[in-house]
Amino acid sequence: MELRKAVLADGPAVEKLYQEAREFLHSQGVDQWQDGYPNGETFRADVSEGNAWVLEEQGQVVGTAYLGMGKEPTYAKIYEGAWGAEPETYAFLHRIAVAGSCKGKGAAEMFFQQLEREARARGLNVLRGDTHR
């Protein structure tokens, strides 16, 4: 598998990944992503920010994630917990979706490793991610 920055042409494949993830979450009784988010508009915004990444296997997009640097507004208030550190800026990961055919092959790990590389290159030593309850 190969990780790379996403381009707008990846949109249809990424939207399919979002839909597959939405259906999987629904089948598990999880209400996350059931309101149409994320979608093509979300992906296009992520690409324009330079934060969208895709994972390819044999020329097919099989995973996507948002790798951000800076400060995530939704992290301003934490419920039932706390961050271990409060740096001015940090690296964070959002919107991971991986094709069912690639689950268990280390796809998510590849996104986390890239996030770590991106953070180190910017001198950031805090990584953040969150989950849906």
Description:
By secondary structure, the chain is an alpha+beta fold. It is built from 3 helices and 5 strands; from the N terminus they run βααβββαβ. The protein has a 5-stranded mixed beta sheet with strand order 1-2-3-4-5. β2 and β3 (60-70) form a beta hairpin. The model has no long low-confidence stretch (mean pLDDT 92).
Share of residues in strands? 15-25%
Query: What's the helix-strand series?
Result: EHHEEEHE
From the spread of the alpha carbons, the general shape counts as: globular
Major sheet details:
5 strands, mixed
Unreliable runs: none
Keywords:
alpha+beta; 3 helices
Task: Give a quick precis of the structure.
By secondary structure, the chain is α+β, with helices and mostly antiparallel strands. It has 3 helices and 5 strands; from the N terminus they run βααβββαβ.
